[in-house]
Amino acid sequence: MKCLSCGAEDIEKDDNFCYNCGHWTTKGYSFLKDEKNINTIKKGAIFKQNTRIGFLLVLLSIGIISFISMLAIRGNNLFAPFTYLKKQFTNYVYGYNTSIIKTDNKYSNVEISDYNEAIEFIKKDFQEQSYICNKDADVSLIETNLQNNYSIPNVSFCDITKIEAEKIKNVVTKMYDLFPNIKDGLTNITITNANTKEEYIARFQPMYQFVNINENIKDYNKINKTQILLNSYYFLNEEKLNRPLTDIIKDNWYVKDATFESTIAHEMGHYISFVLLLKEYNLNNITFVTKDNYKIFDNIIEEYENNVLSNKLLDDSINNYNKKYNIYTSKEEFAKTISDYAAIKDKKGNINAEEVIAEAIHDYFLHGNNMQKSSHEIVSIIKDKLGM
Amino acid sequence: MKTCLNCNSAVRDNDKYCRNCGCKIQSNSKYILINVLIIFSIIELIGLLALFLASYMITK
Fold first, then answer.
1. Quick one: closest CA in B to A133, which residue?
2. pTM of the prediction?
3. For chain B, what is the domain count?
4. Measured at the alpha carbon of residue A253, what is the angle toward residues A250 and A254, in degrees to the nearest 5?
């Protein structure tokens, strides 16, 4: 027989449907008249499969709509569990508490038109990372107060204890009290992971190229960060902080009575030295880079890295010291009176003036007017240059 | 010899449709794939809900 629809040959008399197009045959027409036969077919796996396809599509639709809704409700916080798990895994791998805040993000092709936009971008970068932080209200308040009182766009003490946050706050507050004219230069103070666990306790970074670093300055303005970094290996791990500093740093390396927290004052000493250099150029910061100022900023960084101003400050301090006490003191002897760290030498075998200044300021922070006489000379010149 | 997935009737090699119930002849793999996708979708929905709830717990 032939199929009534497609004309296929070899339809057999017992066939209900054409093997080629699925159309019913003459026998099939009678077959389908009986509702029992139709019900039997509908109970078959293919029909069930088609129902399942419909069910699958409904599930997928619900999934997509749910995801979009949840994303609209929670925003970035929806992915917080992944960051949390990543943090736990990292802590497990490293064997100590680590920070989730990265200070070395880079962005490109970003349109930044002025300094305020640059500051807002820096803030946004940190805010977007900090949603997973342990939101202790007291620590958040400390962060906000430091930001507002000292014009620091971002202070991030993510996951730190309240006690430690207070200690750091006290250091920063005292430093700004001792040297009030140093605002507007720092972009952030952040607890972050150092490249190696004991690389530093705290670190001052005068320039971190943050936004549009590879773009042409004629096409895109750029953003630099000037930051103080606090090593999570210490500041997020109480058992490390509860040890004396001399457990990890040899005696007399830092000035007497130094603590983990007071090393922040040493780093702020570097920051103060940087501020003095900025003031030589009538600048408050090097945050917003344009085609009009990028060369000046490059000069500043080069001078800073070559200790141009700090060497001059140190020379003047030593001259004043020698005149005042009617003695001759070499640079090395002068530095050694402050601390061993102050007396370290650079690759050329010269005393690193930056470290002498930072340690002198560290000494002043810890001991006030009872600081070393050598520190006193340095601090006097610095205060004079800051207009204090 | 193959059988129809729907009614288990015998199917000849060149048949495109079952001669007994008229369903299109297809392999098992599509059937299995759909079932696997359904299971994954259900797991995905449960996972999404768990993620949503966990995001509140972690960021509170």
1. B59
2. 0.78
3. 1
4. 125
List pLDDT tens digits, range B2-59: 888 888 888 988 899 999 988 888 777 877 888 899 999 999 999 999 999 998 887 7
Q: Quick one: chain A helix, strand, coil %, rounded to 5?
A: 55, 10, 35
Please answer whether residues A189 and A151 qualify as being in contact, where contact means their C-beta atoms are separated by less than 8 angstroms. Answer: no
Report the distance separating Cα A364 and Cα A369, nearest Å.
7
Strand partners, A211: A107, A223
Give backbone dihedrals phi and psi of A254, rounded to 5 degrees, phi first: -90, 175
Q: Which residue of A has its CA nearest to B60?
A: A135
Residues recorded for chain A: 388
Nearest-CB residue to B7 (from A24, A41, A132): A41
The whole-angstrom distance between B1's CA and the closest CA on chain A is 15
Residue range A313-336: average pLDDT? 95
β A188-192/A154-156 pair status: parallel
Q: Poorest-confidence range of A204-208, A360-364, B3-7?
A: B3-7
Give the model confidence (pLDDT) of A81-128 as tens digits: 888 888 889 899 889 999 989 999 999 999 999 999 999 999 999 988
Domain range holding B18?
2-59
- A18 CB neighbours in chain B (<8 A) are 17, 19
Q: Do A70 and B21 touch (CB under 8 A)?
A: no
